[in-house]
Every structure is written in structure tokens, then in C-alpha cells.
Amino acid sequence: MKQIDIREGARRQHRTISLFAVLQCWQRGLDGLYFERHDLQRLIGLERFKSKRVAWLQEDLTEFFPHQDVTWSGPKKDSFERLTMSRLPLDVSSSKHATEGTKRKPIINFFHMWRLQRKDQVHELFKIAIPFFADHANYDERFLSAFLALLAQGQISAKHIPGLGGDFSKQIAKGGKEDLTL
């Protein structure tokens, strides 16, 4: 069996994130999201973001979010900080495709993630499946993939994420950047 190359593996991760972002936008009435570095570090499992990986991320998110802006920080402006993505143009004044009546500033808010669990809590949740995971499993990525798979099969509602308790759409409708609680 051929090992998945790095680019294809990254594409799959990015598409999964993109689908979850679409759901968040739809449920919250948003046109786009701000992805902070720490959220992407958890979802993708990377500590460092090289410009090539950020370019791949942008390319893979373009299908649903064609308008993007990357914020770099640091003395040399070479440290990835945030990705802003939207289905509508970020700069309304430069939009040549929208008519005067439809030009509006996109509604964008921060991406919401579930609270980072302690390792012992995660092991309890995944006790049965642990043998199937690599030694250094990215539980956030696996949780997101499992949620989307169950959603695609019609086994769960888009408004209720198992393990978060309560109605997910009500929790993320609060706005702000606070973590969702269990």
C-alpha cells in the first residue's frame, strides 16, 4: 500500500477543516471566519507554519472561501498569525463583480473550537479505539473527521456535536472567542 504523500495528506486535512468552517458560518450567519494560529496548530498538528503550508491551506480553502487574507507577524513578518477567509470579497470597494445594491462588508467572526482536553480525559473517551491510533494521535483532527463522517451519514445533527453537551449552534452563537465547554 502506497503511503499518502505530504501534499495529499495536507489537502485532506484542509478540506475537513473547510467543511467544518462552512457549517460554522451557516449556523452563525457568517460570511467568513478568522482562523487563529493556535486553532490551526491543534487541527493540523503543526507547531510551525512555513509559507508553503499556508499557501496550500489557502488553495484548499478557496472552493468555499475564495477571498482570503493572511496575517504575518514578527520582526521579519515571517511568522503565521491568522488566516481571514470569506465567501464575499474582503475589500468591498474593489469588488467588480457585485452590483451597487449587493455590495456589503462580509460578516466575519472567530472560528470556535472545543476545549482542549486533558490527556487522561481523552484516553478515557478513546479507550476502545486507542490501538488504532498512532502513538502521537491528533485527537482534534480525529474528532473533527468523526463528526463530519457521522453528519454525512445522517446519524447526527449539524446542531449537536457529541461530547460538547447541549446545542452547538446556541453555544457558538454567543460570539467572542471563549472555548466551548463540555
List keywords for this structure.
37% helix, 2 domains, alpha+beta, 182 residues, disordered C terminus, four-stranded mixed β-sheet
Summarize the structure.
The protein has helices at residues 6-28, 37-44, 51-61, 119-125, 139-152, 168-172, and strands spanning 32-36, 67-73, 79-86, 108-110. The protein has 182 residues and is of the alpha+beta class.
Structural account:
The protein is 37% helix and 13% strand. By secondary structure, the chain is an alpha+beta fold. The protein folds into two domains: 100 residues, no CATH class; 53 residues, no CATH class. Strand 2 and strand 3 form a beta hairpin. Helix 1 crosses helix 3 and helix 1 packs across helix 5. The termini are far apart.
> Helical stretch count?
6
Counting DSSP E segments of at least 2 residues, the number of strands comes to 4
Overall helicity: 25-40%
Q: What form results from the Cα inertia axes?
A: globular
- Structural domain tally: 2
Order of helices and strands: HEHHEEEHHH
Structural class given helices, strands, pairing? alpha+beta
Largest sheet: 4 strands, mixed
Strand content: 5-15%
Taking Cα atoms only, what radius of gyration do you get, to the nearest Å?
A: 17 Å
Poorly predicted regions:
162-166, 175-182
Terminal Cα span:
39 Å
Round the mean pLDDT to the nearest integer and report it: 77
Strands in their spatial order, largest beta sheet: 2-3-1-4
